[in-house]
Amino acid sequence: MVTDTSKPENIWSDELYVKYYLEMMDEKYPESQTEREANFIEGAINLFYGDKLLDLCSGSGRHAISMAKRGYQVMGLDLSNGLVEASKRRASESSVKDQVDFIQGDVRKLHKLKLETNFKAAYCLATVGFHMTDQDFNNMLTGVYHLLDPGGYLIIDVINRENLLREFNEKDWTKTRGGYTRLRKTKFDFKSSCTINQKYLKTPDGEEEIYYQWMRTYTLKEMVTFLENNGLNYHKVYGNFKRTAYSINSPRMIVVANKDDSNL
After folding, report:
1. Domain span at 194
2. pLDDT for position 9
3. 73-78 and 52-56: which strand pairing?
4. I need a surface site. Which of 22, 103, 116, 234 has the fewest CB within 10 A?
5. SS3 breakdown of the chain: % helix, strand, coil, rounded to 5?
6. Cβ atoms of residues 60 and 22 within 8 Å
7. Displacement of CA 232 from its chain's centroid (Å)
8. Do residue 108 and residue 171 come from a single domain?
9. pLDDT at residue 141 tops 60
């Protein structure tokens, strides 16, 4: 069996891992990459100055702050208190501190959250599937449906399962400029369509920790079915943030959907 899905995720509540994650993200995703991804969001859907956006699993806050700088009102939602606080600090040091807010919350329980506002669009980049059962995903999509304005949009970015399997890497490691070393060992469980990995992390001070993480992967057909079962209409799929056509060789599967049949 792939994993015990009831086992709590020990990464996002862990101060050591959050510090590593923030440093890694700053190095792996410089401002130019964030701007490229923000360009994608603006180009893939119809947005107007001042529209309200919901950033699901907002992480370091890089997308939310970038979109706020483009004139949108953005709410970032993340499971990790540590990441929410870090995002708030970054926003307070920016020119758009009044246009972006970050709150702690679990997207797997989005259908139960009371956010007291609706949004023109929601997006979840590189996070769907992590410690997320199929019911969790349905709960998230149900919540998105009720939070979107009529005709509102949803963008979901996940790894391309077909390319992942074609170029599967069982082991990789990285080291940040600040001295964090991370070794990751990964397996794929075909029955559940999940990757399962162990992350061995060593801090600059020599402290060591092991983290466990699993991620559900999706075919395009599965993704479309999830969307349609929750009242969202599939519109288009892209293979990367340059809006290249999706194929078996694409690194990403970026799906655009909307709440009803309005023209995109």
Report:
1. 166-211
2. 57
3. parallel
4. 116
5. 30, 30, 35
6. yes
7. 18
8. no
9. yes
